[in-house]
Design goal:
Elements: H1 3-28, H2 36-57, H3 66-86, H4 89-107
Length: about 110
């Protein structure tokens, strides 16, 4: 990859990211009332996305190897416990991710 290609790729990703952040404010900004359906989606979609991510991450349980399954279950448990206790999404994600990485690199080799 050339530097020009990398710069173009970063520019396109930046514009797309900015556009998705700007779109809700442009659409519903000012005096417009946010529709009830959009408010409903804002309340229900985060939970649905987290459920889909859990299913996606734990989909390979059919392999049956304890060294594969145990760290995943432990990381999910760590994430859930920290989130229940601290109610901080970033902390929960960090603990689960770091815990999983430590488990697969140092415990379940």
């Amino acid at each position: 990859m050339t530097n020009t290609y990398l710069i173009a790729m970063i520019a396109v990703a930046s514009v797309c990211t900015f556009a998705t952040r700007l779109f809700p404010f442009a659409l519903f900004g000012g005096s417009k009332e946010v529709p009830k359906f959009i408010k409903y989606l804002g309340g229900i979609l985060p939970v649905a996305i987290i459920g889909a991510l859990i299913i996606y991450c734990l989909r390979d349980f059919t392999k049956g190897d304890i060294n594969y399954i145990a760290p995943q279950l432990m990381a999910v448990a760590m994430t859930a416990i920290v989130h229940i206790l601290k109610k901080n999404v970033l902390l929960s994600i960090a603990v689960g991710t770091i815990g999983y990485m430590l488990l697969i690199h140092f415990v379940f080799i």
